[in-house]
């Protein structure tokens, strides 16, 4: 099953790059002009995102690099113990929606200490892989079109991350056994 | 909510730096963060230019419309407020398929393009519409069939069975995405009760 899906993934990009223009040419579309026409929008869109992303990422960096993050993570250790969540796992769940590279660092340190095939390693992998960096996605998508009021989108994203975290804990415990 | 989180991060960072007597940490961190953000955007330029060009060909040739037709039932269920033949639908569906197959760097441009199309239906451009929030709910929960990046990292750490996590990851992401869609629906109904967000 994995081989099939990963083969599809590998072939999909090259196939798209060849088949989209080919089909368009067959439909008598001036493909090169179309491409340039659409590609033109790429640059201004990327530039438009800059202020939004700078605003978000500098705040995340201040939070992380000054040690504030570590302080809160330490404070949460008793909570993790009380909930029977391994204390090394909690930082991944908390950081995942805020900073993808930040939580990945914790995953890699678990790989170092326990190994990727340990229960902890598999659980960490699942939490890291089963969701996207909510804060980044919201900043980029809304930033690109200049929407400032994101209504309930962030709330939904963060709650879904919490659901994903709990689901990962439950599923891994059932599939790989014991904490 | 985003305002509170933002100020919370900055203020706790400054307090932490003061308590350690290393106030210069704040400046260094702020500038590093800003620099990284610009680097990410610069990296996005090539991806956006390339994929927006490709997708324009797909749109002009009618390929995008075909995709929309095939997946219409799913789209209608998730995005009831988007008109059936609107180009936004085509981009939303391309974004979802790219995510599903783990084509991360193609998914972002398609999602952004979908946002631009949805923005055309928006009477108040500074405010999100329900359809935008649904698109974000699907993207933040990260529905994907194969966690290729994670498998790669596990291989780097000499995992004996790097693909062991496919099953649990898929289950967890389905639960999270399902939760996101339901929560989105709940908050949409609560937020827009009795008002039509597409009318001024």
TrEMBL record, chain A:
Residues 47-147 form the Nucleoside transporter/FeoB GTPase Gate domain. Pfam families: Gate. Keywords: Membrane, Transmembrane, Transmembrane helix. Coiled coil: none annotated. It comes from Baia soyae. The chain crosses the membrane at residues 7-26, 46-63, 158-178. One of its GO terms (cellular component) is plasma membrane. This is Spore maturation protein B. The keyword GTP-binding does not apply. Signal peptide: none annotated.
Automatic annotation (TrEMBL), chain B:
It holds the Pfam family Gate. The chain crosses the membrane at residues 6-25, 37-58, 128-153, 165-183. It comes from the Bacteria. Coiled coil: none annotated. Residues 42-153 form the Nucleoside transporter/FeoB GTPase Gate domain. The keyword Cell membrane does not apply. InterPro entries: Gate_dom (IPR011642). The keyword ATP-binding does not apply. Keywords: Membrane, Transmembrane, Transmembrane helix. This is Spore maturation protein A. It comes from Baia soyae.
């Amino acid at each position: 099953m994995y081989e099939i899906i990963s083969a599809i993934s590998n072939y999909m990009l090259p196939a798209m790059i060849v088949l989209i223009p080919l089909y368009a040419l067959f439909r008598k579309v001036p493909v090169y002009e179309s491409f340039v026409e659409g590609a033109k929008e790429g640059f201004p869109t990327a530039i438009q995102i800059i202020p939004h992303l700078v605003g978000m990422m500098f705040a995340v960096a201040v939070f992380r690099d000054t040690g504030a993050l570590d302080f809160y993570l330490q404070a949460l250790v008793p909570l993790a113990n009380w909930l029977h969540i391994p204390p090394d796992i909690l930082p991944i769940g908390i950081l995942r929606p805020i900073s993808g590279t930040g939580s990945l660092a914790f995953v890699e340190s678990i790989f170092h200490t326990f190994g990727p095939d340990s229960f902890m390693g598999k659980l960490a992998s699942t939490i890291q892989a089963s969701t996207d960096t909510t804060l980044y996605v919201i900043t980029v998508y809304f930033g690109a079109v200049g929407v400032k009021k994101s209504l309930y989108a962030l709330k939904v994203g963060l709650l879904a991350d919490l659901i994903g975290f709990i689901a990962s804990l439950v599923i891994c415990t059932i599939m790989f056994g014991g904490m | 909510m985003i305002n509170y989180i933002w100020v919370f991060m900055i203020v706790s960072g400054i307090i932490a730096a003061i308590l350690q007597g290393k106030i210069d940490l704040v400046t260094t961190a702020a500038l590093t963060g800003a620099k990284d953000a610009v680097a990410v955007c610069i990296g996005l330029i090539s991806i956006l230019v390339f994929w927006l060009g490709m997708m324009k060909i797909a749109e002009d040739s009618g390929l995008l419309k075909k995709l929309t037709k095939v997946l219409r039932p799913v789209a209608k269920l998730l995005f009831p407020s988007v008109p059936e033949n609107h180009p936004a639908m085509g981009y939303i569906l391309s974004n979802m398929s790219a995510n599903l197959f783990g084509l991360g760097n193609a998914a972002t441009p398609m999602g952004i393009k979908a946002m631009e199309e949805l923005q055309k239906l928006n009477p108040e451009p500074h405010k999100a519409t329900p359809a935008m929030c649904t698109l974000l709910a699907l993207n933040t929960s990260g529905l994907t069939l194969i966690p290729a990046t994670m498998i790669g990292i596990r291989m780097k750490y000499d995992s004996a069975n790097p693909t062991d996590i496919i099953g649990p990851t898929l289950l967890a992401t389905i639960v999270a995405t399902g939760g996101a869609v339901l929560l989105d629906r709940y908050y949409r109904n609560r937020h827009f009760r009795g008002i039509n967000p597409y009318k001024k």
